[in-house]
Design brief:
- The protein is of the alpha+beta class.
- The chain contains 1 helix and 12 strands; from the N terminus they run H-E-E-E-E-E-E-E-E-E-E-E-E.
- Strand 4 and strand 5 form a beta hairpin.
């Protein structure tokens, strides 16, 4: 006749469950800070600046003859929260990763065409066109990473842009 032994495994199960739970808890406590830092690095979050929103509006003061493929420098700054727009170069540099609403209006001069593109980094995006005192306006939402650049660049040989605060970049 076979020998049968009965064991009560209740205590063993409790010990194993506690050991597994402790291992999972320790692993999670170690992994969560690493995962959090990876997410922070990926999205460009900066502690203490989560509510700051970069914003700028600049306009063009003088009427100007534009050379071929010249970046338009909007010289009159009305607003520059965060200092991300450089009125020496005409370039906006994203201070952090996020969605940005970008707008420009360019006005052509009398008896003149005006072709201007919005550029992201070194990539031509969309065209604004004006003719004989008309305006071309662009409004786009762009996903920008920290340090991406956005600017308005003339797209033809020689044309004239109307200043007098009627051409803007925001």
């Amino acid at each position: 006749m076979p020998l049968v032994a009965l064991f009560d495994t209740t205590k063993l199960n409790e010990v194993l469950r506690a050991a597994i739970m402790k291992t999972v808890e320790n692993t999670m406590n170690e992994m969560i800070p690493r995962i959090k830092q990876a997410v922070i690095d990926d999205i460009g979050y900066e502690p203490g600046r989560e509510n700051e929103r970069p914003a700028f509006t600049a306009s063009l003061t003088p009427h100007k003859n534009l050379a071929g493929y010249e970046v338009i420098i909007f010289d009159k700054i009305w607003l520059n929260m965060g200092g991300a727009y450089d009125n020496d170069t005409g370039v906006f540099t994203a201070p952090k990763t996020g969605l940005y609403s970008i707008s420009t209006t360019v006005m052509s001069h009398h008896n003149s065409h005006l072709h201007c593109y919005l550029w992201k980094n070194n990539e031509r995006m969309v065209l604004a066109f004006g003719n004989d005192f008309s305006t071309g306006t662009l409004n786009v939402v762009m996903a920008l990473k920290k340090s991406d650049t956005v600017y308005v660049k003339h797209a033809a040989s020689t044309e004239k842009i109307f200043g007098d605060q009627r051409s803007t970049f925001s």
